[in-house]
């Protein structure tokens, strides 16, 4: 499974970062970004694999996002 954020929809509420800080981080641009396995922020729209142990919290973050801007693809 892969996860990505549509930064055009993100308003920077940061619930995703609170729910799953291993996969999401707020950047200087004021919106959330996916964090890759190396801890680097990915550019907008770029997907990263979701480690199995983070899948449940990634799904929670996507479901809790008020802007519905987090997408999980199989």
Your description of this structure?
This protein has 74 residues and is an alpha+beta fold. The chain has helices at 15-19, 55-64, and strands spanning 2-5, 24-26, 32-34, 48-49, 70-73. The chain has one domain (2-73): Alpha-Beta Plaits (2-Layer Sandwich). It has two helices and five strands; from the N terminus they run βαβββαβ. The strands form two sheets. It has a three-stranded antiparallel beta sheet, covered by helices on one side. It has a two-stranded antiparallel sheet with strand order 2-3. A hairpin with a 5-residue loop joins strand 2 and strand 3 (32-34). The longest helix is centred in the C-terminal third of the chain and has 10 residues, at 55-64. The radius of gyration is 10 Å and the shape is globular.
Provide a quick synopsis of the model.
The protein has about 70 residues and is of the alpha+beta class.
CATH class: Alpha Beta
- Described by the principal axes of the CA atoms, the overall outline is globular
CATH architect. name: 2-Layer Sandwich
N-C termini distance:
4 Å
Q: Kindly report the average pLDDT value.
A: 95
